[in-house]
Structure formats: structure tokens, C-alpha cells
Specification:
alpha/beta; Rossmann fold; Immunoglobulin-like; 5 domains; eight-stranded mixed β-sheet; 21% helix; 30% strand; membrane
């Protein structure tokens, strides 16, 4: 309760002002009169004149005050109400660096200590948010400001905070009289960034009550504002909101650590071309570092990582840099592991290994085309390969075998022997794809190189086997190492090896849904031209996708015999096309309807799928926001528009190939992204393989695996937030200094100088001090007394 005094409520402000001015003038005139009277009585002797002057002054003052009181008639105002503290927004850093050691326990524990100290302040209303990426989010378990029951904006009473990042851009509007202890900061998924500027911008633009002060609880490892423009960026983020930003440093010293701070590349990653890696090494916390060994490896689907380069970083002043040159022999997504051998005493081994994902492009697709004889089909494919400017083709077709009797000396021969040993032992790795068309492996010495060709596929190469009288089983590929990487079984127990009967291939349900046949079907529809014959093969192998089948011939299992099959083996892809009549898509009566364009569309798609061209992948998949070990990982699947069915995702570990997770999700025609929960993964590299099973795809080869796509990704512990564990107290101090705030430690958070509370009145009682006649009587008595004193003092 408070008590105050005021003029009578029936007087307007101008009347009160005039009365005060007249009273002031009366005092002035009284003083002037007394000064003049004193001058006239200067020659008088004794105390009587002095007492008369004093009496005149006192009675005159009382008369003026009495007249003023009679006009104003003062009243007593009694107010009953409560104090409402200012709105103070507490922003707690939610990044992963807050899990590192801090002032007391982890930095997150130190943040909780700071919130406990702030919660002891009953004179403020606290709104607690966690900042990271984008707009801040209300802290988990937060009630209303000061502990009331009003929910945060966008959150229903009794519900958890909305996951939308824009929710919580403002603060609750309730204003309880007292503050309760705040809830601890959010313990949910740590943030991947620490963007304080975005948080300040969101709260400064909020339409509700503006905060009177900010308190930032962080370790200073901020993405924004940066270290170079901290003050200016902070003021700009507040957008003219002139309030102090106090900071609480949850860590002041770094752990003893040597780690990989950053891995950068200069230029784009292109297969078969050197790429420079710039690796920054840092040492902190007093750890002694001099020469730190660095190794760059590429993770493989099977087997140990392949060492690409090694080097030594010489550390001076806690920082060292080394550049390593690497050459990647495969296009597509590649995972590189960069690791160091840290000195003894390293307390944070998690940042000794970093992973970098590279999307390796091709300058040109380098294709080795080997054909057994010059046929129409060989000629059509060779012409198409040479006409494509994006393809660099090296072509060989056989005009004589080693056993041919030419009856001429070697000097007289224009034909050279087939360089099989040089091609498949020296230059094989330089090709992106190999096409074996109607080629017999035995007469030309290729048989001994088939294991190397199979290993080439395992490491990421592409292989297409095209039919003809000397292909597949007839080409002596059955029961070889290469047969294991083909998508179909080479069944040598059945006869014949070749079926010369004309037929029209039948497109399967998987073929109608697969993007790889979409360009062809767009030109010719569902009907294929008549083919002159086919090689006889067995059932598709596990993991194969059958796009075309024979209309009458079946395999040993009774299923339609595959004609066009796609397969994946470890890191590579293979295609089996059992016919040698694809040239009829180029020049035939059937081809005239599409002006011969169907042949190019068919082979462009097959080669594109072999090279993992996104146009011919059934879907795209990647981890949302990356993957961090030990935290929930979400995979975002983006199917092609128009697909309907089920997506089956298999997550396997690179190196061992062990399947760690299998996920399924329905997909609709709209091609909307689908999010799948992959759970918590361990550090390392992974491959996510997506298989799209079309809706109602049963029979007609529908029980086989459908077209797949794969995305490699890596999970690391801590990520960029743990790369540099040093706290940045200087940046926190610069933020506070730029806005008139203070920077303290968690234990002193409760002593921050925050704005004063405001009293909100709930009840007001007004009572006159005296009735009006009493004020008038007192004024008249004082005026009469003054007149008597003046007369006795000789004043007229």
C-alpha cells in the first residue's frame, strides 16, 4: 500500500498551474516588500524592528500557503497494488558445443546454474528460449513468464512447444506478480548452429511486449555475430531496440585438445583429376603440439578404407595447416575420412576424425567398348557413343582371331592384335564403364582378366554385357568371377545357349515405373520392335531389377526369362541386355515413327543409370541436416513425381556392408518428401539404398527387387561444434559492451543490473484532508494575522 497527496479532483490542470504561479508571485512580492522596509528602518536601534520583519515574513508565508490550500483543497490518495517486473528474455545456447566441459560440469550444466541464479530474482519476468538455427524456441518445460500458467505463443495450454521454428518468436503476455525458479534449458536435440543474431532479430520483430533486457547464456562459440563485426552485428540484429544485452559465459578455459578444425577443398571434385585438401589442425588447452600426422582415406563399401594421402601438420601458436593432394577414381558421392594422431593428453578424441562428403563429378564419361565382330548393332552403338560429346569412347571390334590364318607377314598386316593385357591390367581403372558386346572371352585372352574386371565393378565401375552369338554363356563367362557381378544367372545346364527365334520383348511393371525406361516409353509407348533372337540366361540374381522379359521363354524356376536386367554389386552397377537388336530402334520400319530417336534415348538412359545420373534414379535420399553419432537421424526421401507404392530403405555400414537398419514408407503420386527415422547411429560411413516398389507390382517379374538408388553419408561425433572447443569469452564481452550490458559468470548471473519493477495499482481510495470550509477558515485566519502584524510593523 502506498499513500500520496494530490489537489482536489474537481480542478483542472490549468487552474492548478495558475494558482501555483500566483502563489509564487505573492512570495516574491512579500520578499521585495520586506527588503525595502528593512532599508527604511536601517537607522533604527534595537531588536523590535527585526522581530517585526520576522513576524511579517512568517505570517505572510502562512497567508499565501493558506490561500493556495483553500484553492487546491489537497486530498490523500491511498493505493493498493503489486510490483510487476520488467520482461527479461533469457537466450540459452542450444548448440552441441554446450556439451563440452565448462565452469561447473559441462557448459550445459553451467547454463542451468545461471538460470537458477536468475530464477532467484523476484523482481523480473523471465522468458526463456533456446537459440540455435533460425528463430529461438521456448525452453522445454517452460511455463509462463515468472512461473504463471499462460502458455507460450503458438502453444496450447498443457501442450509441448510447437516444433515450428517460428513459434516462440514473441513472449507470453501474462504478468504474474512474482517469479518462480526457471526450468532448465532444453535437453532435446542439440542445434547444429549457434545463430544469436537470428534469435535477436526474431524477438526484436515480435508484435507483443518488447523485452526490457536480454541475457545470453553461451560459451561464445557463435556462428553469428562473427568475431570481426560483433558490436555492429549485434546492434543491427536488435533493429533499433535500445535495450542492454547481458552475457553469461559458461566456460572460460578450453579442454586439452588436438583436433581437425576444418577440411576445405579447392575447386570441384572431378574423377581422375587431382584435388587439393586443405586441413586445419588446432591445439588448445595447453596441450603440447609440434608435428601432427594427418591421413586422408576413402571409405569403401567393403573392406578397409583406402589411403589416399598422408602428411604432417606443423603446429605453431596452436594452429597448423597441411595440404594433401588426392585423386578419386570414381564419380558420385564419396566419403573421405581425415584423421590425425593426437599427442598424449588429448581429452577430446572425438574431433580427431572428421568426415567430408564429396559429390565427385565427371569431366567426360570414359567408355571402353569391346565388340566381337562388326554387326549392325555394334555399328549403331559405336556411332551413338562417338556422337555424344560428353562421352570419350575407346572402341575395339574384332576382325580376326588369334587363330586365323592370314597368309601374310606381320609387316604386311594393317590389323593389330587386340591389346587385351594392356587394356585390362593397366588402363582398366581409367574407364568409367566397360561395354562387352557379343564378345567371346576365351579366344582373346580375356578370361584371365575377368577377376580384375569383377573387382573393377566392386570398386564402383560400370559394366554392360550386350547379347549376341558370342555373349553370356556362349562367350565363356559362366562360372567365372565376372558372372557373380552380373544381374542374371548364367545357367549352363540348360540348352540352347542362344534362341534365334524372333520375339517382341515384354516390358515388366518395374520397367514401366523405372525412370531408366521413361525416355524410351515416351517415344514408342509400351511396345518394342521385334528382335531377331536372344541369349538364354537364368533367373535374376538377388538385388536385380528386371525391366524386360521374353514373352514365352522361362527360366528354371518357371519365371519369364530376363531380357534387360539392372544390378548393383558393392559400389558398382551392371546391366545385362541379352539381345543384339537394339539397332532396330534406330533404323527399321518401327523406328520411323520416332525418327530413330528411340535408340539414343534407350542407350542414354542405360549409360546414365550406370553412371548414377540423377535423372534416372528412382528417388533421392539424404540425412536431414547431416548425421551426428549418438543423436536421432532423419532421412529425407524424395521420390519422383507420379510414383506410388512403397519405399524400402536399407542402411548399411561402409567397410563391412552390415545392414544396421531397414525402413519402409508409403509414397504417393505427388512426389512429396517422406521423412524416415533412422535412429541413433555410431560414428562412421553409411550407405542408404532406396528401392521403390510400385503399387500393385506383382507377377510379371514384380516379385523381384525394383530399381534402386544409393546415397552415402557419414556420421561424426560432435561435428563442427566440437571441432574447436575453445570458448570465446571476448566475443560475449563485446556483445555486452556494445549494448550497455554486463558480462558475468554463471554464479553472478543473479546480480546482473536489470531494469526496475513497475507498480501496477489494483485499488485507489481518495479522501480530503479537511473539509473546504476548514481550508477557507484557515486561510482567512492566516490572512488576518498577517494584516495585524503588518500594521504593528508599520507596513501599510
Amino acid at each position: 500500500m502506498t499513500r500520496s497527496f494530490a489537489p482536489s479532483g474537481d480542478l483542472s490542470s490549468p487552474i492548478v498551474a495558475v494558482a501555483c504561479v500566483v502563489a509564487a508571485l505573492s512570495f516574491g512580492l512579500l520578499v521585495l516588500e520586506l527588503v525595502r522596509a528593512r532599508g527604511r528602518a536601517a537607522g533604527a536601534v534595537g531588536a523590535a524592528p527585526a522581530r517585526a520583519a520576522l513576524g511579517t515574513a512568517l505570517t505572510g508565508a502562512l497567508a499565501v500557503l493558506g490561500l493556495l490550500a483553500a484553492i487546491l483543497r489537497p486530498v490523500a490518495v491511498t493505493s493498493r497494488g503489486s510490483l510487476v517486473g520488467p520482461k527479461v528474455v533469457v537466450l540459452v545456447d542450444g548448440s552441441r558445443s554446450m556439451d563440452l566441459p565448462g565452469v561447473a560440469g559441462t557448459r550445459r550444466d553451467s547454463a542451468e546454474r545461471a538460470l537458477e541464479e536468475l530464477g532467484k530474482r523476484a523482481d523480473v519476468r523471465l522468458s526463456r528460449y533456446v537459440f540455435g538455427e533460425g528463430a529461438p524456441l521456448p525452453a522445454d518445460g517452460q511455463a509462463s513468464e515468472g512461473g504463471g500458467s499462460a502458455p507460450a505463443p503458438g502453444v496450447s495450454a498443457g501442450a509441448a512447444p510447437a516444433p515450428d521454428r517460428d513459434a516462440g518468436a514473441g513472449a507470453p503476455a501474462a504478468a504474474p506478480a512474482s517469479a518462480a525458479a526457471p526450468a532448465p534449458p532444453a535437453r532435446g536435440r542439440p542445434q547444429r548452429r549457434s545463430d544469436l543474431s537470428a534469435a535477436l532479430e526474431a524477438l526484436a520483430r515480435a508484435a507483443d511486449e518488447r523485452p526490457s533486457a536480454f541475457v545470453v547464456v553461451s560459451d561464445g562459440r557463435l556462428d553469428r555475430p562473427g568475431p570481426d563485426d560483433t558490436a555492429a552485428a549485434t546492434r543491427a540484429a536488435l533493429e533499433g531496440l535500445d535495450v542492454p544485452v547481458h552475457t553469461v559465459a559458461v566456460a572460460t578455459e578450453s579442454v586439452r585438445d588436438a583436433g581437425v578444425r576444418a577440411v576445405r577443398t579447392s575447386g570441384a571434385a572431378v574423377a581422375h583429376q587431382p584435388l587439393s585438401l586443405r586441413i586445419d589442425i588446432g591445439c588448445s588447452g595447453g596441450l603440447a603440439c609440434d608435428a601432427v600426422p594427418v591421413v586422408a582415406r576413402e571409405l569403401r563399401e567393403q573392406g578397409a578404407p583406402t589411403t589416399l594421402a598422408t602428411g604432417t601438420a606443423h603446429v605453431e601458436g596452436g594452429v597448423g595447416t597441411v595440404e594433401l593432394g588426392v585423386t578419386l577414381d570414381r564419380a558420385g558421392t564419396r566419403i573421405l575420412e581425415v584423421s590425425i594422431k593426437a599427442p598424449d593428453g588429448d581429452e577430446l578424441p572425438e574431433n580427431d576424425v572428421r568426415y567430408i562428403t564429396l559429390d565427385v563429378a565427371r569431366d567426360r564419361i570414359r567408355v571402353l567398348h569391346v565388340a566381337g565382330r562388326p554387326t549392325y548393332d555394334v555399328r549403331a552403338l559405336r556411332m551413338w557413343l562417338k556422337a555424344d560429346a560428353s562421352v570419350d569412347v575407346v572402341a575395339f571390334f574384332i576382325l580376326r582371331t588369334p587363330g586365323d590364318e592370314v597368309n601374310a607377314s606381320s609387316d604386311e598386316l594393317a590389323l593389330i592384335p587386340f591389346p587385351v593385357d594392356e587394356l585390362f591390367s593397366v588402363h582398366l581403372s581409367s574407364f568409367d564403364a566397360v561395354v562387352l558386346q557379343d564378345f567371346d572371352a576365351a579366344p582373346y585372352g580375356l578370361t584371365k582378366h575377368l577377376p580384375a574386371l569383377a573387382q573393377y565393378v566392386d570398386k564402383g565401375g560400370g559394366l554392360i554385357m550386350v547379347g549376341g552369338p558370342n555373349a553370356f554363356v556362349s562367350g565363356n563367362y559362366a562360372r567365372t568371377r565376372l558372372a557373380r557381378v552380373l544381374p542374371v544367372d548364367l545357367d549352363i545346364g540348360r540348352a540352347p545357349k542362344v534362341d534365334l527365334g524372333a520375339f517382341v520383348p515384354r516390358i515388366t511393371a518395374a520397367g514401366r515405373a523405372a525412370p531408366v525406361l521413361a525416355p524410351l516409353l515416351a517415344l514408342i509407348g509400351d511396345e518394342m520392335p521385334e528382335m531377331p533372337g536372344t541369349n538364354v540366361v537364368g533367373d535374376p540374381l538377388p538385388g536385380a531389377t528386371v525391366l524386360m522379359t521374353h514373352p514365352t521363354r522361362t527360366t528354371a524356376s518357371g519365371a519369364p526369362m530376363p531380357v534387360l536386367s539392372l544390378g548393383e554389386h558393392e559400389s558398382g552397377r551392371t546391366i545385362a541386355l541379352t539381345l543384339d537388336g537394339s539397332h532396330r530402334l534406330l533404323f527399321s520400319a518401327f523406328a520411323s515413327s520416332s525418327a530413330g530417336r528411340a535408340h539414343g534415348a534407350f542407350w542414354d538412359a542405360l549409360l546414365g543409370w550406370l553412371m548414377r545420373d540423377p535423372r534416372f534414379e528412382p528417388a533421392a535420399i539424404e540425412p536431414r541436416g547431416g548425421c551426428l553419432a549418438g543423436e536421432e537421424t532423419a532421412l529425407v526421401l524424395r521420390p519422383l513425381a507420379g510414383q506410388r507404392g512403397e519405399a524400402r530403405v536399407t542402411i548399411a555400414r561402409l567397410g563391412s556392408g552390415a545392414v544396421v537398419k531397414t525402413l519402409t514408407a508409403p509414397i504417393g503420386e505427388g512426389g512429396e518428401p517422406v521423412e524416415l527415422a533412422a535412429g541413433r547411429l555410431e560414428p562412421g560411413g553409411y550407405s542408404a539404398t532406396v528401392e521403390i516398389v510400385p503399387e500393385g507390382a506383382a507377377g510379371d517379374g514384380g516379385d523381384q527387387k525394383r530399381a534402386t538408388t544409393r546415397r552415402d553419408f557419414a556420421c561424426e561425433r560432435g561435428g563442427d561444434e566440437w571441432a574447436d572447443p575453445r570458448p570465446d569469452v571476448a566475443r560475449l564481452e563485446a556483445i555486452a559492451r556494445a549494448t550497455g550490458g554486463a558480462s558475468v559468470l554463471p554464479s553472478a548471473a543473479g546480480s546482473l543490473s536489470l531494469p526496475a519493477a513497475t507498480q501496477v495499482a489494483a485499488e485507489r481510495h481518495v479522501a480530503p484532508l479537511l473539509p473546504p470550509w476548514a481550508w477557507t477558515l484557515a486561510a482567512a485566519a492566516a490572512l488576518g494575522a498577517h494584516w495585524i502584524v503588518r500594521r504593528r510593523g508599520g507596513l501599510a
